[in-house]
Amino acid sequence: MIDKNKKTIISNGTIITPFQLLEDNVISIEKGKIIAIENKENIAAPVETEVIDAGNGFVVPGFIDIHVHGGGGSDIMDGKYEAVKQIAATHSRFGTTAFLPTTMTMSKDKIIRSLKSIHEAFIKGTGAAEILGINLEGPYINPEKKGAQKEKDIKRPSIEEFLEFNQASGNLIRLITVAPEMPGAIDLIRWLHKNGIIASVGHSNATYKQVQEGIKAGLTHVTHTFNAMRGLDHREPGVVGAALSSPKLILEMIADGIHLHPVAMKILIKIKEVGKIVLITDAMRAASKPEGTYNLGGQEVTVVNGQARLKDGTLAGSVLTMNKAVCNMVDKVGVSLTEAIQMATINPARCLGVESKKGSLEPGKDADIVILNKKLKVELTMVKGRVVYKREEG
Predict the structure, then answer these.
(1) pLDDT of residue 290 exceeding 50
(2) Which helix (H) or strand (E) is 33 found in, with range?
(3) What is the CATH number of the domain that holds 24?
(4) Closest CA to 154 of 141, 165, 166
């Protein structure tokens, strides 16, 4: 295990910052921070320096997943500190160094219990991927576009109730999904925007005009674009039309090739600038686990052929990991590796306002670093200078 208080050097890899692609450079790390990126010929490493060999792979910023429900057999809605730790450890194996634990529509008591468990994990630490806040997905959504969320627990948007949720979370809620067409939604969106919390349109049957009203009130984000929302029609552009045409909106993308056809992903990339797209997993508890039957929000989910579905066939989250999302963007969509890395690192960092310390490899920033091999599989994950995962040989 690397001692994060000692100087560490990562060498013998292609560094993707992700703004530049650097060959023959090394990264120097000390006390959890990147202190230098320079040509290897300029480095005179002291004897006590620990050296990590990147094995001719890629050295990239740690992935930031702003929408993840579970993994490794655990779910955020389990409402347990141990579950949050397990999810963090699981996704760090796939290059995630920071994340927003994401709740879903359930009873008020279960949401509050879940929020408290995330706050506990935030205070104690996870020992793996770092918690940057909380993503509250529901309960303020439209039943007509509920997806895999339970209809009986869906509620009208309420500032008063949201304040209860945020208090239970230790004021950690950073992002919340709201259907802007629902009664009380615009007031909530306006309040969220005023208080620096990201309001995201999702699970919504809003018209284009209703989304524009939401944008005027402070909507800046789109939850898993194309999924669980009114689609694009030539006479009613709907939520999708607003997402594609509104420059103020940042769009989430589940790049598993299941939630979105590769052609839909290509269209999105052609229309929106790369800086406005954030890769997410929307992973549920089956991520990294064998296929079979699992539970999501009190509902039975079957995972077959990489697809997680309710009994009626509704997609219920994913088993996607961030490194696979990056790989799919390169292989299925045809973007450059640099662009794919940007969508998984600096874009979510900017979305959350943490780009001064995360999202890119630059001196002064947290040493959140991932080493990928040539097949884009994770060889090593480092969080603030500490190695939290290293692939075993064989």
Answers:
(1) yes
(2) strand 33-39
(3) 2.30.40.10
(4) 141
pLDDT at 340 over 90: yes
- Whether residue 316 sits in one domain with residue 178: yes
pLDDT reading at 44 higher than 90: no
Same domain membership, residue 232 and residue 306 = yes
pLDDT at residue 1 above 50?
A: no
> Which residue shows structure tokens 């686990």?
289
User: Of the listed 65, 256, 282, 368, which one is catalytic?
Assistant: 282
SS (H, E, C) the chain: CCCCCCCEEEECCEEECCCCEECCEEEEEECCEEEEEEEHHHCCCCCCCEEEECCCCEEEECEEEEEECEECCEEHHHCCHHHHHHHHHHHHCCCEEEEEEEECCCCHHHHHHHHHHHHHHHHHCCCCCEECCEEEECCCCCHHHCCCCCHHHCCCCCHHHHHHHHHHCCCCEEEEEECCCCCCHHHHHHHHHHCCCEEEECCECCCHHHHHHHHHHCEEEECCCCCCECCCCCCCCHHHHHHHHCCCCEEEEECCCCCCCHHHHHHHHHHCCHHHEEEECCECCCCCCCCEEEEECCEEEEEECCEEECCCCCECCECCCHHHHHHHHHHHHCCCHHHHHHHHCHHHHHHHCCCCCCCCCCCCCECCEEEECCCCCEEEEEECCEEEEECCCC
Report pLDDT digits (tens) over 203-216: 999 999 999 999 99
The answer to whether the peptide bond before residue 139 is cis (omega within 30 degrees of 0) is yes
Residue 331 lies in a domain: yes
Query: pLDDT at position 46, please?
Result: 63
User: Which ranges of the chain would DSSP assign to H, the alpha helix?
Assistant: 81-92, 108-124, 159-168, 185-194, 208-217, 238-245, 262-271, 322-328, 337-344, 346-352
Domain enclosing residue 127, as ranges: 63-352
Residues 217 and 345 in one domain: yes
Total domains in the fold of the chain? 2
Contact between residue 140 and residue 186 where contact means Cβ atoms under 8 Å apart: no
Is pTM, for the whole model, over 0.90? Answer: yes
Q: Is 282 a catalytic residue?
A: yes
Percent of the chain with pLDDT over 90: 94
Given a cut of 60, is residue 356 above it in pLDDT?
yes
Give domain status of residue 229, yes or no: yes
Q: What does the block give as tokens for 8?
A: 């560490």
